Amino acid sequence: MPDLVCSDCGTIYPVESLIWLCSCGGMLDVVAFDTTVDAAALPGRAPSLWRYAEALPIAADPTITLGEGLSPLVPARALPHVQLKLDFLLPTLSFKDRGAVVLATLAKQLRVESAMVDSSGNAGTAMAAYFSRAGIDCTVYVPESTSPGKLAQMRAHGATVELVPGSRADTSAAALRAAGQPGVLYASHVYHPYFLHGVKTYGYEIWEQRGRSLPETVVVPVGNGTMLLGCYLAFSELVAAGLAEWMPRIVAVQASACAPLEQAMAQGLDSPVTLDGSATIAEGIAIAAPPRGRQILAAVRATGGTIVSVTDRQTAAARQELADEGLFVEPTSAVCFAAVRAAVDQTFDSASRTSAAAESLLTAESVVVPLCGAGLKSPTSTTRYS
Ligand SMILES: [Zn+2]
Fold first, then answer.
1. How far apart are CA 215 and CA 203, in angstroms?
2. What is the pLDDT of residues 32-47, one digit of tens each?
3. CA of 312 to the centre of ligand 1 (A)
4. Which GO biological process annotations does it have (predicted)?
5. Which of the ends of the chain has fewer CB neighbours closer than 10 A, N or C?
């Protein structure tokens, strides 16, 4: 299994060390390894994310996989230039299963007895399910405001749920205090880079399902940036392998109540701005201080993309519009559709520099939007705004 490397100082650690942060404080990545998939072999492979085996840092464990991946890619009725990727249909009803199955597989190979994770909800439910399947104890730290549906899912899978008062940042701090006990894997979707390599299969699937070509624009919700960095990995690898001709522009979407990355992009900064953030219905991306913020900003800029924000009102309206199309998703999942809708209707805040840049990218000929989490996870806030 490939080692981990510090993105700041270059120190290399074996993955067996269970380390999750460099001693210098830098974020860890997976060392470069040959990720070229055998494109000719794909048609004969299993319909799951493990079909991209060469690109993954670990081999599938048939006792752990739940057939995750290869979610449908369908056209949006209301916005014909948009394809929707239905990642809320994965086993625990969110895209986080892509990374969770990789970390649970890793944990079993490393023979750890227990794992811990912090989450705003969906990563916790995904980890709870996959660690249960792997026979490994799992503790999940979540904000006490987490949706009851997500808490019920975690508890059903036997996870120990630690409810932390305060914000998502307070939950992260509680988890960091508890991390690092001997023999316990901190299965963080933010810190552990194997997670990102599981999530990147989302990008490989877009490529394969579109007849082995990438769209002009991919829109992603961004909080901690796991889907965004996963997409960036996938697109970079596909282009480097000669399997795709261009990098899609990545347009990332935040909730306006908590948009440290959008503000950094607008101000031309390399790191997220410091802010407290206020409450938003898009709970999955309410991250005031994303640890991989610098990597996120660099990745978006490298693709020629940008970062925008939408209001809760726009998000709720988009959620309703998606429901009218037969797709019931959680509010966090609706922010990307809200951004495309604002670009098409030209209702973005004209004072925002990033919105102006996003308008042409979001109305390009081919745009892919993920729907990451199912509506039943947080069925409230269904107020009609139309
Ligand atoms: Zn370092």
1. 10
2. 999 999 999 999 999 9
3. 38
4. isoleucine biosynthetic process; L-serine catabolic process; L-threonine catabolic process
5. C
Number of domains in the chain: 3
Least confident of 53-57, 169-173, 247-251, 339-343: 169-173
In this structure, the answer to whether residues 214 and 265 fall within a common structural domain is: yes
Regarding whether 371 and 256 lie in a shared domain, the answer is: yes
pLDDT of 381 reads 54
Distance 172 CA to ligand 1 centre (A): 20
Two structure tokens written together for 306: 């940008």
Cα–Cα distance between 334 and 255 in angstroms, integer? 10
Q: How many CB atoms lie within 10 A of CB 360?
A: 11
Of the three residues 175, 194, 213, the one that is the final residue of a domain is 194
Instruction: Tell me, in angstroms, the distance from the centre of ligand 1 to residue 121's CA.
Output: 29
Sheet holding 217-221, edge to edge: 73-75, 82-85, 367-370, 217-221, 249-255, 306-310
Q: Is the separation of the CB atoms in 161 and 140 below 8 Å?
A: yes
* 292 shares a domain with 231: yes
Is 385 domain-assigned? no
Q: Are residues 183 and 332 in the same domain?
A: no
Query: What is the 3 CA–ligand 1 centroid distance (Å)?
Result: 14
Mapped to the 3 state alphabet, what secondary structure does 172-241 carry?
HHHHHHHCCCCCEEECCCCCCHHHHHHHCHHHHHHHHHCCCCCCCEEEEECCCCHHHHHHHHHHHHHHHC
Domain range for residue 273?
A: 73-94+198-377
Confidence of residue 54 (pLDDT cuts 50, 70, 90): very high
Q: Tell me which residue has tokens 């005031």.
A: 288
